[in-house]
Amino acid sequence: MNKLVLFLLMVNHLGALGSTASSHSNYEVSETAGIECNETKSHYLALSQDNILETVNRSSLAQAKMVNITSGRQVYPAVYPAYTAAPAAEGNYPAIVLIHSFKGFEPGYQTLVNRIAEDGYVVIAPFWQTYAVSPSDTEVEALIRNSIAYLETRDDVDSERLGLTGFCAGGRYTMLFLPHIKQFKSGVAWYGFPYVGESEIQPDRPASLIDQLDAPMLMIHGTRDQYSNITDIYRYAGELDVSDKYFELKVYQGEPHGFMIKGDGEISESFVAQDAYHEMISFFDRILKNSAL
Length: 293
Description:
By secondary structure, the chain is an alpha/beta fold. The protein is 29% helix and 21% strand. The chain has one domain (3-289): Alpha/Beta hydrolase fold, catalytic domain (Rossmann fold), CATH 3.40.50. The longest helix has 19 residues, at 271-289. It is globular.
């Protein structure tokens, strides 16, 4: 099954591989010895720890490592690899949980995490597809909460300044969990899906949770997104506005879905990609560093 088919299955709520997570949050942290891969996992989760870490510390401004996040489930505890990066200088920094796309933790996300760390944030990117290509929303929420619990153990993290960002399916998760998880003070949703939900493993649509949203959110989208039509984003923005919820919307004319990461899995260096990255960092800086809102 190719990646496009898997992506369409997610959009059409056919993620039958999801499993049910328990509501409680437990966490453990350790460095990983490697990342296993099986038929239900994303292609990019097959990368070994050595393959990921060998390109980590090219910059003196950031340091990175792999950790394990143990997220409690009903039947057995699940251990999820997560890629983390932080500013190299000692300090107490805001932190960001980054949720990769439906295609998995592609190499471009490693580059992106490193850059965000260089810009003054501790970042954790959990591999949410470790056990299923389309896990349940409950399972992903538990993993995100346990990623927060990990961040709270770090001396270099100010747990009062947490942000959430995600791409594609991760954009939907940002829209979905920003209202649920009150530790997040802001969020940036990249080409998300505000009206996907109402299925067994995805019971809620992000648009149905607007009344619970307190944190400001930036949405980044392209006018030619072939999977998440721009008209849905304008509709969602209108509903946020009617509900008096603070949001910002950055729309790039002519850009398709997933424009931040190229087809080869590497980060795009186009003008649009660089501008969109600046928009995200500027948004987080204003809220998490400068408390502008």
